[in-house]
Amino acid sequence: MSQEQAVRLTSLAKSAGCAAKVGPGQLSQVLGRLQRSADPRLLVGFETNDDAGVFQLTPELALVQTVDFFPPMVDDPYTFGAIAAANALSDIYAMGGTPLTALNILAFPTKTLPLEVLAEILRGGADKAAEAGVAVLGGHSVEDEVPKYGMAVTGTIHPQRILTNAGAQAGDRLLLTKRIGVGLLTTGIKRGLISPEGERAAIASMAQLNKLAGEVLARRGAHACTDITGFGLLGHLNEMARGSNLRAEIRFAAVPIFEEALALARADEAPGGTERNLAYVEQFVTFAETLDRGQRLVLADAQTSGGLLIATNEADTLKADLEAAGVTVWEIGRMVEGSGITVA
Ligand code: CO
Ligand code: CO
Ligand code: CO
Question: What is the DSSP-derived secondary structure letter of residue 16?
Fold first, then answer.
């Protein structure tokens, strides 16, 4: 793939202005007006902003379904495909489910980009699905000036073992399985502001499946779980706190952050989505006065294919099991009585 072709991927996304212009608050207002299905087999719908929907088939078996797609955040089409697939699969793992099948969702400008780029995006997605043990059954594509790619994923889960973002209990400890800051880093890549090592680390983090962590969670359980994506750590933490009627307390020093992401945030080089996330969550968050704007921004950074955020009363055994499975895990805080979020 020539550099010329590749560079056009993210610049196309930018020129058409398709970076999300809708803030997290606005979006949930609109979604909140939709009517939940009255079908009693619907176990988890969209009303709790959970990662995926769950529909019961038998007393022992439920379907778990999700869909995610977006414009390129990296220039290499194969890498974009792999990241989009890892991101879509993540919502199944975050519910404690096992993904089985996927359908490609694709928008592509066949008149302005070579079909070779399209083939590479799909190959990246297919390889990532294969790594997850997921069969790609087909998909749907449309012509669009901005490429977009993702997957609709279907999995299974036991109806009594669903992990929602709303089940945390007071005293639970909070675990996180990936560093945060990839939104800042991908913006830094586009602006030529980060090191090759920083770029490689961001891409490796986004392309990494949450499979190993998800398998441990499905086996051991937890009180609540979600994956960190577009609303950032604080946005997803806020949903967990609100859904569980609790307060989240985290320590900034305990949160794993890509160093270069923090430097970019402090240099006022944050993506628009991250700025909007912080503006939205500030009403729920009490920050220690010592935390500067860069530190606050990085906690709100819009992630693509972020890690799992887990609330559990068995943090020591869960951490040990995650580490034994090869998952890096950080303890970042706990859930307490109250509401909102405190960052110390
Ligand atoms: Co999610
Ligand atoms: Co999602
Ligand atoms: Co969930």
Answer: T
Q: What pLDDT, on a 0 to 100 scale, did the predictor assign at position 155?
A: 98
d(CA 256, CA 107): 34
The reply to whether 133 and 219 lie within a common domain is: no
Catalytic residue check, 18? yes
Instruction: Give the whole-angstrom CA distance, residue 15 versus residue 30.
Output: 26
Put simply, whether the predicted model's pTM sits higher than 0.90 gets the answer yes
Answer whether residue 164 is part of any domain: no
67 C-alpha to center of ligand 2: Å?
Answer: 6
Identity of the residue numbered 284? F
The CATH code of the domain that includes 97 is 3.30.1330.10
Cα 4 to averaged position of ligand 3 atoms, centre (Å)? 40
Tell me whether residue 163 is in a domain: no
Choose the final residue of a domain: 132, 157, 182. Answer: 157
Question: Choosing from 1, 5, 18, 199, which is the catalytic residue?
Answer: 18
Per-residue model confidence as pLDDT tens digits over 132-150:
999 999 999 999 999 999 9
pLDDT at 289: 97
* Residue 168: inside a domain: no
pLDDT of residue 28: 67
Helix (H) or strand (E) holding 255, with range, is none
Residue 37: predicted pLDDT:
87
